[in-house]
Fold this sequence. Notes:
Radius of gyration of chain B: 16 Å
CATH topology of chain B: Rossmann fold
Strand content of chain A: 25-35%
Order of helices and strands of chain B: EHEHEHHEHEEEEEHEEEEEH
Largest interface: A-B, 29 and 35 residues
CATH topology of chain A: TIM Barrel
CATH architecture of chain A: Alpha-Beta Barrel
Number of strands of chain A: 12
Oligomer: heterodimer
Largest sheet of chain A: 8 strands, parallel, barrel
CATH class of chain B: Alpha Beta
Structural class of chain A: alpha/beta
Strand order of the largest sheet of chain A: 1-4-5-6-7-10-11-12
Amino acid sequence: MHTKRIIPCLDVKDRKVVKGINFVGLKEVGDPVQLAKQYYEQGADELVFLDITATHEARDTMVDVVKQVAKEIFIPFTVGGGIRSLEDIQKMLHSGADKVSVNSAAIKDPNLIKEGALLFGSQCIVLAVDAKMRQDESGWNVFIHGGRIDTGLDLIDWVKQATDLGAGEILLTSMDADGTKKGFDIELCKAISKEVSVPVIASGGCGSLEHFKDVFKEEAADAALAASLFHYNELTISQIKTYLKDEGIPVRI
Amino acid sequence: MIAIIDYGMGNLYNVKNALDALGVDSIITSKKEDLEKADKLILPGVGAMQDCMLNLEKSGLKETIMNLVLHRKKPLLGICLGMQALFESSEENGHTKGFGFVKGNVIKMEDRNVRIPHIGWNDLQFVKDMSLKDKFSKAPFVYYVHSYYASDYDQEDLVAYSEYGNMKICGVIMHDHVMGCQFHPEKSAKDGLKILKYFVEEFV
């Protein structure tokens, strides 16, 4: 029985987990190692850490966080944010991360995906992508820099290219749904799931138990990611999993 | 002392972290002397089979491992790609020869109805009654990441499997003093740690 994954996401800045909308009005919500441990104990299937400071000093702080997390939790975790080179990938993997996610840097240089996958294996290269529907609603464009810049790239073209190059998973954030708490962007997730054979992680928009059920029942994604829901204890992982199990969705419980 | 064999493939640190959490002494090493001194060996690995066997051959570790396992009967645990290397051959990159400690071949996963690679948590069904099974009150969940899986193995050697699409994935295999896990026990939360503990404390 292959199960659907529930993944808490931790945005990390200056060694603290923070939360805000579009990087504005950041609030500290806790210590990354403590929170990681708490989510692990509650039954998280995986964790994602996004380093939202991009200076070199911050990078070293993140490496420390990754090393400590790897000693405390025994589930896979991904580190992303500011991964720009093969050295960055190697540093994170050697510190204990199981996967890295690449976003803007991979758009500037798609070879980062290819070389990263060749060197470390596809399984550890996650393509993180921020998508927003075009005004004419003909499809989605890829945005970078926290959603500030429209690359003009078509989402489906880019995701297909990235998986051909070796990306092993897609972390798909809907900018249209993010922050709305109205549910995952199922149309978007389905469009991508249909195009690629690698697993898709749905991100953005989740606000209730039903939203998890909807995205899984529709077979739109293999995993669902959320942040503030967990940080503010609006829902716990075990609560979500018990609910999903009762709804007939396979989960690890 | 457990030796975690370092041959340039994959994340060895997390196997060590898991053993540390269990309070088990271990060392990440590529030195022949360390492997000889160790009580048991762990062969981790992610990546492609061809690179795996090539690296083992180039470093001379293949011969050392063959000798320690076949003649000195040292217990060995292969994890993920390290498990695939225990079989006779793999069809990844054409045809790659494995150690041949366990009968069987590794083939590509094919099922249009499921996502490949197989990434995520799956439950493990035991086919053998043994002390490892008794450690779990219900089927344990383990974390898989792979696109190839074992076939043509001896049914006698199969300990536990997982179902994925129409495939029966060989999850745990044991033959004499050689054990393999297709999933990552070091990343399979408390259930995974129990499996590692079993290898360290009980596996012959």
